[in-house]
Amino acid sequence: MLKAQRVTFTELSEHLKSYEQKYGYSTVDFFRRYQDGKLGDDDDLMMWAGLYHLYLTSLPIRQFMRSEPLSA
Question: I need a surface site. Which of 29, 39, 61, 72 has the fewest CB within 10 A?
């Protein structure tokens, strides 16, 4: 069973880059192929897809937090 852990946006981006280097194509290209069912359901690929999903869902929040001034 996987243990939940915190990961920074930078660490998340680094994980995605390591998958890109390992498999030789961009995360966007990978995800298209993965969703089209062309790559199978290997654990490593499912982890890559999950990390990319986390990246996509956290990006708007990160951008929002950068644009909002902090108030006390």
Answer: 72
Tokens found for residue 7: 């990961």
**pTM recorded for the entire structure:** 0.76
CB 9 within 8 A of CB 51: no
Biggest CA pair distance of the chain: 50
pLDDT at 70 over 70: no
- Structural domain spans, the chain: 9-64
| Residue 60 DSSP SS3 | helix
User: pLDDT tens digits for 32-69?
Assistant: 999 999 998 899 999 999 999 998 888 777 767 666 55
State how far the Cα of 17 lies from the Cα of 11, in Å rounded to an integer.
10
